[in-house]
Amino acid sequence: MHGRPTGAVGERFDDGVRAAVGGCFEQCPTLAKLLFGYAREGVLVTDGEGVVVDCNDAFTQVMGHAREEILGRHARTLISGLHGTELFAAIWRELTEKDHWRGEAWSRSKDGRLFPVTLIMTAVRDPEGARQHFLGLVSDLSGQEDQRRHLDYIAHYDPLTGLPNRILLVDRLQRAMEQVACRGTRLTVAYLDLDGFKAINDTYGHEAGDRLLVALARRMPSALRACDTIARLGGDEFVAVLLDLDDSIGEVVLERLRMAASDPVLLGDVVLQVSVSIGVTHYPQAREVDADQLLRQSDQAMYQAKLAGRNSDQLFDPEQAFNLMDRHQCLARIRTALERREFVLYYQPKANMHTGEIFGAEALIRWQHPERGLLLPNAFLPPIEGHAVAVELGEWVIEAALTQLEEWHAVGLHISVSVNLGAYQLQRPDFMDCLRTLLAAHPRVHPSFLELEIVESSALQDIELVAQVINACREIGVQFALDDFGTGYSSLTYLKRLPAASLKIDQTFVRDMLDDPDDLSILEGVLGLAKAFERHAIAEGVETVEHGRLLLQLGCELAQGYGIAVPMPGADLLRWVSAWRPPVVWSTESRVAREDLPVIFAQVEHRAWLRKLEDVVLYGRMLPPPMHVRHCRFGRWLYGEGRVRYGDRPSFERVEIQHRQIHEYANEILDLKWQGREDQAIARLNTLYEARDSLSEALLSLVSTRPR
């Protein structure tokens, strides 16, 4: 504490403090001064006009001024200047009428920092009642304010990513629902779940997973508009609330969000990348719903996107949803549907793309619902998973498939049928007895025409038991296939220990292999595993002629997908088989020699580059791919390994010319885009596609082929 003030000010201080602390000062002046000096609150003493006569150390620390800089100033000069004359008038009025004022105000420290304070002012009067001094107690609230802000932050924001959490999301969603109700517009709730995030955590550790989440959380808000909200619910799940979207704008915003979440993230020397499954619901709806129901709807739609193959989006359909029905009701309704024979099987053919042979079909269950029409499996199977009714339904599927085989065989169509089997059903102790009973009821069907598929990522709790079941099935002629191979985390273990005859490559890798080098690498690796373990490889998700061509170049002939046929009733398949012929290019396509596979990968790298350019032109993605002919990944291959291996071939020069031409077109298109001439830029994409096709043909002329 500073020394006692001298002169007139010091005398006024003694008088003021004596009056302020009353008899305590008279009886023990040392104690009074100790209280003044050690008080944690700032203490300020002014004369009757408000001029400062003294203050304690706590007040100088709050203000950041030395004591000598405060003495002699009017108390109102210590306020920030943010307050108008109304505040000082109110303080003076209260002090005049009641000798006391208490409130909060903004003060300014010597370095210019603004901070909130609690201020208590008391008038001190002499024995005759005349007002001589004012005593002020000042408490810095900035620490409390920071604490309040911190508590508010942790209550409403995710601590890892800084995005809003569920509490703040629901609040904003409720406000958005009120807004669109008033304006007569629509909002969209999109529930995002990252595909493959668990694998990243398992492979690189949780720290890498957290860093990936932080990187994506920084990107995703930039894909949205200022009126939209993106929140993290926990784990790898995010929710976006999008205001006033029509269908066309909504597709663009969702695509931008998908790109932001799925673009690679570089962590040191490791490149991490995930895809994203999105569930979408809209508000308002025909029935009134609240914010929590919208979140549950979008969550359910996201789950359906997962079941549909991941890296996709699904729209919630309130009319077909079973979320309004509890599980007990759903189970009872499905049992009733079994009794009423409301379930039917559709069949998707499996073909040898090179020879055109139809060697089998996959049985796919549908529910011919009397009110809702034809329902797909993901509309009714999830609620019964792991329940006895799922076993009843599974047994019905096998029986119906055997009945269909009898009908086909009777008219000369001798193909096999594969049936999906749940892990719960497969691991039941009575499974083999039930299967033998079903086969015995159809003696005209040899067991070898029945194939059972188990999902590779399903929860097989007792792998030894499953292996015994598969061997028992093989002994009676029934075959097994591992479905969705490559999506689980025990692929090699299952492949080694489960004696399945076939591997069905998951459709997500097949669908995106044309322009995703990573998916192509996975697919090529699975084909290598199938060959090493002497298993048949069947590619799911063949949607186009180009998908089939690339698979044939890799040596994979067996496939199913919409590019071959959509699922159809059993009665229609017979007619389809008699009429179907494979595309001519499939029958003439040859397998590429293994040493020339880098050319195929280079071709896919180029398609991936072109897709990124499309993202810029069509969807407004701000970062274009490398535009120099030598800097893109295809260019690095072309002028590196490609030139070394193929540079002496006449067609190599044609590849170089086509590649340079594509980059010239691309730069012209980007110039149009940046100039705001988007329609012209989009129109020019067709020229780019034609050049891409010419480049592909030139590339294929470089490679050698092998007989099948």
UniProtKB/TrEMBL annotation:
Domain EAL: from-to ranges: 327-581
SMART domains the record matches: EAL, GGDEF, PAS
A GO MF term: catalytic activity
CDD domains: EAL (cd01948), GGDEF (cd01949), PAS (cd00130)
Pfam families: CZB, EAL, GGDEF, PAS_9
Requisite cofactors: Mg(2+)
Organism: Thiorhodococcus drewsii AZ1
Protein name: Diguanylate cyclase/phosphodiesterase with PAS/PAC sensor(S)
Domain (PAS) ranges: 43-73
The GGDEF domain, residue ranges: 185-318
Annotated PAC domain residues: 101-153
Domain of life where this protein originates: Bacteria
Biological classification of the source: Bacteria, Pseudomonadati, Pseudomonadota, Gammaproteobacteria, Chromatiales
